[in-house]
Please model this.
Amino acid sequence: MQTVRFNAGETILSEGEDGNTAFYILDGSVEVSIGKGAHARSVGTLDAGDVFGEMSLIEPGPRSATVKALTETECLETSYEEFVAAIRDNPERAIVFMKTLVNRLRHMNELLVSIDPGRRSLREIFRDWHGAYEGAEAARRDVEKMHPMF
Model:
């Protein structure tokens, strides 16, 4: 890990660029936005103690958001390789990290619903899928009762 500093207004990560690092904010604050140009939309502000870029520690690849420093910001930066080694040394760290990912997923789900109230949430989609699966399982059991060969 290394300490990195960013000036107010500086872009730290850009949506779509390749990434394999994440940042833990030691001091300062950043704005997270999704979309580009006129379609960019702020999805939140992160402060000291928050993490960003974390998806790249699970699967390096394109960044899902743009992050800009709102103030002078100091962060600890860690790479995919450093993260994997740390998890091997202390597996409990993975649980804390996964909680961060789940909280971000929940936040993005809420944001999607607020942007388009007609859009179904991931929870609703899963509930429908689960209901369809349960219905298919019940039908399969009924067929087995009627036709023992199946």
